[in-house]
Specification:
Layout (H helix, E strand, L loop, with lengths): L2 H11 L35 H4 L3 H15 L2 H12 L7 E5 L5 H8 L4 E6 L2 H13 L6 E5 L15 E6 L11 H12 E8 L2 E10 L1 H5 L5 E2 L2 E2 L13 E2 H4 L9 E2 L4 E7 L4 E2 L21 E11 L5 E5 L9 H6 L3 E4 L3 H25 L1
Parallel strand pairs: 1-2, 1-4, 2-3, 4-5
Antiparallel strand pairs: 6-10, 6-11, 6-13, 7-8, 9-15, 11-12, 13-14, 13-15
Length: 366
């Protein structure tokens, strides 16, 4: 490759990347309205001065999952063990989305030479600096208040990093553009032989039977009164999060009706994913037993290699979160209600016929 071609490639690689998804309350998000929290209340409500002028989206985000995330002991241990396997006294680390600064401080605690912690929200960046200073790591951790896609190699105090770490996973593995952000940082801010944590991940789906879930998502009969026509409005298109249901899936007495099926595999260390367009994919399931399938449950797992050559795992699979309230309150699982397509279409035609008869009756009376 010629010198000019090499320089052109480097300029292309280091060009700022504009993401398709912004983290909540990111300063650079064009849709971030930055509405003060106190504006969400009438004047007679008391709003503490410490949060009155803070971006309301940030307050919602922190209270929705940040507290649970910081108190997820197994999550924190996963990152501690993964970082311990690759961090030494000469290691330079970069973190995307530092939030409280916890992962950056773990890296420093493990002896990293320097850590650059990137945070897109100025309030969180300021808080992370305070936490880092309070814990005595200010000489080895630098916080940059930018989108990671706007950070360039020359912004890093020690140049490109040896390790890239992030926890930008959503209830769905890629719902917070983890692959997109990691790939951008990996190409521009990480050395060619650098380590990425987590290294890879798998999005899975399981079909379940749950009478309790069905009880809160369908209309039934009561004392001989038929209410089933209300199921005409039953939403089997949207994917909802368990937190939206107001309960944990482990409380729904669910029964797996299929094996857990991997539907997307991502390698964050290489920037590869088998979910490239076309995104529609048909998968044949084997039913484990006779019964009714009420919903599809989406959960994921991520892995990172450790010193002895094995991999450690963190997951949101329901059986792994039974004793992990914080995990379910931070991430939980995705749920999509299922329907018998043929029966649903027949019911819709019957309801439409009934509507037509009712409409004709009203017109005759008029």
């Amino acid at each position: 490759m010629s010198d000019s071609a090499t320089k052109k490639e480097e300029r292309s690689t280091e060009a700022a990347h504009k993401p398709s998804w912004y983290p909540p309350a990111a300063d650079e998000d064009p849709e971030n309205e930055n509405i003060p929290f106190e504006n969400q209340f009438d004047d007679h409500f008391h709003v503490p001065s410490r949060i009155a002028q803070v971006n309301s989206e940030l307050i919602e985000t922190v209270n929705d999952f940040h507290f649970a995330m910081m108190n997820d002991v197994q999550r924190n241990q996963f990152y501690y063990d993964a970082l311990k396997a690759v961090v030494g006294t000469e290691t330079v680390v970069i973190e995307i989305g530092t939030g409280s600064g916890l992962l950056a401080m773990i890296s420093a605690k493990l002896g990293a030479k320097h850590v650059t912690a990137i945070e897109a929200n100025r309030s969180l960046a300021s808080l992370a600096r305070y936490n880092i200073r309070k814990n005595g790591f200010e000489d080895r951790v630098t916080v940059i208040n930018k989108m990671s896609t706007d950070v360039r190699p020359e912004d890093l105090p020690f140049g490109k990093a040896d390790v890239l770490v992030s926890e930008i996973l959503g209830t769905l593995l890629l719902s917070e553009s983890a692959l997109e952000y990691n790939e951008d940082a990996r190409k521009r801010l990480l050395k060619k032989d650098g380590s990425v944590i987590p290294g890879d991940g798998v999005q899975c789906v399981t079909l379940i039977q749950s009478e309790k879930l069905d009880l809160i998502s369908t209309a039934r009969n009561w004392k001989g009164l038929d209410l089933a026509s209300f199921n005409r409005f039953r939403d089997t298109s949207s994917l909802i999060f368990t937190k939206q249901l107001g309960c944990r899936i482990t409380h729904l007495n669910y029964k797996p009706m299929s094996l857990r099926i991997p539907i997307i595999r991502c390698d964050f260390s290489k920037g590869t994913c088998d979910a490239a367009p076309p995104r529609e994919r048909r998968i044949r399931f084997h039913a484990l037993e006779t019964g009714t399938i009420h919903a599809a449950v989406y959960s994921w797992e991520v892995h990172s290699p450790i010193a002895d050559g094995t991999k450690i795992t963190m997951s949101t699979h329901p059986e792994d979160t039974v004793n992990q309230l914080a995990r379910d309150m931070q991430w939980g699982q995705g749920i999509q209600l299922l329907d018998d397509y043929v029966a649903s279409e027949e019911r819709n035609r019957a309801d439409e016929d009934a509507d037509s008869r009712d409409e004709a009756f009203v017109m005759l009376r008029v």
